[in-house]
Design brief:
Blueprint lengths: L7 H4 L4 H10 L6 H5 L5 E7 L2 E5 L5 E2 L5 E2 L3 E5 L4 E6 L2 E5 L4 E4 L9 E13 L8 E4 L4 E4 L3 E6 L3 E8 L1 E5 L5 E5 L2 E6 L5 E5 L35
Parallel strand pairs: 9-10
Antiparallel strand pairs: 1-4, 1-6, 2-3, 2-5, 5-8, 6-7, 7-9, 8-9, 9-12, 10-11, 11-14, 12-13, 13-16, 14-15, 16-17
């Protein structure tokens, strides 16, 4: 009855102050600053062909343009599918027959981390002064400050082909190198080393790794192996 006795002018007043008061004083509800601290979601800019998403190991749902995808989530694509995701200045172009995981964000939020379990994806990462973007695969990890590169993953190997800038590539066995534009680094199932090739040479053989860049202080990749179900679409 109290609510209906408020004047029409007061009914048009913003509800934000009331919501903040409820969040601050009612037990069991999220605090306003906690909501504001949640990491920004990935936005689906485009999606064509069979593509699905599930959040926190829930049910698989259609992945459609305009959808906001929050971690932890997984995305899988079927044949001939293409998905474009955006997160601030970062973009991911995921191709068909691929499986991408968005793991929970790190406590400090300094590193954006994705896990690519299968397929092909092209990454365009906004430049910052320190490494802030990491792509883990079963056989290697790529860590960047800001660049453009492609990651391909099969059941036998993982490859990172650099289009622009420099990508630090690290394997589980501890092998690491800085891979520059025009080069591709590859890690293999059951092996600890890396091969680095000239990406422009079709079928080119293994080449010497590019020299390490002393100006880069690359962090240790955060490998967290799991065994997801690969796409069956």
């Amino acid at each position: 009855m109290f609510l209906y006795s408020i004047s029409s002018r007061r009914r048009r007043a913003p509800l934000a102050p009331l919501v903040v008061l409820l969040l601050a004083f009612l037990p069991g509800l999220a605090r306003a600053q906690d909501v504001a601290a949640l990491p920004a979601p990935w936005i689906v800019v485009e999606s064509s062909g069979p593509a699905e998403v599930r959040h926190d190991r829930g049910s698989w749902l259609p992945l459609v343009a305009g959808l906001a995808v929050t971690a932890p989530s997984e995305i899988r694509t079927g044949p001939a599918a293409e998905v474009l995701l955006k997160h601030g200045d970062d973009r991911v172009h995921l191709m068909g027959q691929s499986y991408l995981e968005l793991p929970p964000a790190a406590a400090d939020g300094a590193m954006t981390r994705l896990v690519q379990w299968l397929g092909e994806a092209f990454f365009e990462v906004g430049h910052r002064s320190t490494p802030h973007f990491e792509v883990d695969t079963p056989y290697l990890a790529a860590i960047v400050k800001g660049t453009a590169f492609t990651v391909e993953v099969t059941h036998d190997d993982s490859a990172v082909a650099v289009r622009e800038g420099v990508v630090a590539v690290v394997t589980r066995g501890g092998a690491s190198t800085d891979v520059r534009a025009g080069m591709v680094a590859r890690g293999y199932a059951g092996l600890t080393g890396l091969t680095v090739e000239d990406n422009a040479a079709a079928g080119g053989g293994s080449a010497a790794a590019p020299p390490a860049d002393a100006d880069h202080a690359w962090p240790t990749p955060d490998f967290q192996p799991i065994s997801p179900s690969f796409p069956q679409m």
